[in-house]
Amino acid sequence: MAHTERITDLVFPNGDIYSGSFEEVQLNGKAKYTWSDGTIYEGDWEGGKMSGKGLIVWPSGAKYEGDISGSYLHGFGTFTGPDGSVYRGAWRMNVQHGIGTKQYSNSDTYEGSWKEGVHEGSGKYCWNGGNTYIGNWKGGKMCGRGVMKWVDGDRFDGFWLNGFRHGSGIYSFADGGYYFGKWSRGLKDGKGTLYPAGCKHPSLKKWHNSLGRDDKNFFFSHSLSLNSEAGRATRPSVKRSLSEKIFTDGVLRSTGRILRRASLSDENWGLFDHGRNIRCHESSSMSFHSSHEEQHEAQDNSTLFYEREYIQGVLIKERIRKLAEISPKTKQHKKFNVKEATRNSCVDIFKGHQSYYLMLNLQLGIRYTVGKITPVPMREVRSSDFGDRARIRMYFPRKGSQFTPPHYSNDFYWKDYCPMVFRNLREMFKLDAAEYMMSMCGDDGLRELSSPGKSGSIFYLSHDDRFVIKTLKKPELKVLLKMLPYYYRHVGEHENTLITKFFGLHRITLNGGRKVRFVVMGNMFCTELQIHRRYDLKGSSQGRFTDKDKIDETTTLKDCDLSYVFHMDKLVRESLFRQISLDCMFLESQRIIDYSLLLGLHFRAPEHLKALIENPSALPCGDGGVSQGEPLIPSNGLLLVTHEPSSVNNAHGSHIRGSTLRASSLGDKEVDLLLPGTGRLRVQLGVNMPAQANRKLQQDDDSGVELFEVYDVVLYLGIIDILQEYNVKKKLEHTFKSLHFDSTTISAVEPKLYATRFINFLKTVFPDVS
């Protein structure tokens, strides 16, 4: 039987004092321990460590009262900082972790989720001035979907990144006006629409839903994932116990300094007033000042609204519209096209909850496959890895099985094609298996794009935008499997290939036998920069234009819509066309046609116009205060600097593999792109490529002087839609229409003619100006 002894005021040689119970040679029961520096603990002990309920008081005046486990603050407790700030909530291993409330010394308050000592998850922050933010946080900053409300009645509902508005959102003015648009790093960037006070505007519910999730549920993003709190990966803690204690010759030695460190490591100050700071940005931007003026001007006419376009906060284009211009006929035409797009496609199979279940099925299957194939030792692929038997099959019953977890979706069968091949491809593309799992199967889940493609395919995006998941038709699946051995060799030999990067190929069989095939691809527009224009270029004019009534900020334009040519560095251009030629030769060898160059443009605001962000009244306007078209903006040049690997932004994306490009303007050295206010970006083929966009202006006079509009742009490009195999019988009609070939050219060499026309067209888009 253990011997328990009560000791009063036992003084150790180092000056620590203990009053309480000993059991054998360990501290057990209730006791008081005073360290030589003045730190005091009163509470429960077990096995020589503080465990149970207790109170710790530091010499600085800070104190903690609550649960303690193994000498760590662990469980639920209240911490009062030396400055008077108070945190009450969950703790894990000495840091705030879980649900908790903190009142800062400046009277700011935060209530919500914490992770590793900072705001992470859903939470509400109230500044002492009355501004509030309710939404998602990451790493202590507003990140994800959230709502900011200002004390004067203004409100922003949309997406945030690192504490700034970033992405789509709705700014509501206190007087009833609305601005629907996009932001980048706190500045308006891209197209948007201003509805002054009193003007009829679209349904707010519709716009809230278009932001990405239903407004009622956007705080509960974990419900769209197959993960639970228990399944979250936690990084190993490097913190030591509050009081690591050992007996040496009967003397208790304490690391009370660790206790003091814990009191100082807590964040005892609130956030600077993001609300006030953001309003400063907003009130200094064109739309905020001018919107009030315009709203007063438009009081007598509730039918006017303003279509605008911004580049890094600078208003470059504005068009006054009347609601009457949006005719019922146009709306009916759009509605009809939506029906046409969904006919004979997967879209009608998966609506509402069914699409959600499909996403869960996809996540469950990918997690199973990656978890099964990753432990297999790396090796070179064999011919059998491409064969019909190279499949992973598994049945996922709702209740779970010996090999699969229980889930909330419907029962389904899973098939993974050529798992070893795609595992090696992911390695080749420098994609870590754990990162891939977190992107595809993490807590934030997947999200479905708002509309299907022309083919009727469904598209999903990973939560971090790194991957695009697309449904395939059976013929497309067969083409990819047939091409796969040659694709594997091509991307292995050419690290700078512009061809779509494939990361996985899967099939889900649902109840009733319906089969849905998926391919996971890299998203070439995964960038911190705003993509202002997107083009799908084939080198044809037949049907290659977009109805103006259908164009919005997400529209991918076509060949005939492109009015720019792009001038770039000589070496960069040579590298581009060298790789395009190699990729087209590969596609030709596989008898592939109908592929496209997907081109994304990020426009840079000229330096001399950035002052307009602070002085919107200086914006050049035409008659009636409205700019006529796009103003003539001379370029100020993008800054290329010598490449420094340690200085560039190492944002992960599907483009992480590939060499850094060289530029003749810097003596044939590898280069980075320096963007003021953004960062330093590594220039690669198809990624962060600097250029000048030139457009010839139409002139009404006969002066003989040619005027051009020039913008600095950053280009993102890649070759897509590579799963259409040429077939003389099936493609005859298509070839006549899209390529304008005569009957004499219809032959087995059709893919070569397509490649030739494709490359020649691109040479007019990216002309040689050396």
From TrEMBL:
Keywords: ATP-binding, Kinase, Nucleotide-binding, Repeat, Transferase. It catalyses: a 1,2-diacyl-sn-glycero-3-phospho-(1D-myo-inositol 4-phosphate) + ATP = a 1,2-diacyl-sn-glycero-3-phospho-(1D-myo-inositol-4,5-bisphosphate) + ADP + H(+). It comes from the Eukaryota. Residues 352-766 form the PIPK domain. GO terms for molecular function: 1-phosphatidylinositol-4-phosphate 5-kinase activity; ATP binding. Coiled coil: none annotated. One of its GO terms (biological process) is phosphatidylinositol phosphate biosynthetic process. Its EC number is 2.7.1.68. The keyword Repeat applies. GO terms for cellular component: plasma membrane. InterPro entries: MORN, PIno-4-P-5_kinase_pln, PInositol-4-P-4/5-kinase_core, PInositol-4/5-P-5/4-kinase. Pfam families: MORN (PF02493), PIP5K (PF01504). This is Phosphatidylinositol 4-phosphate 5-kinase.
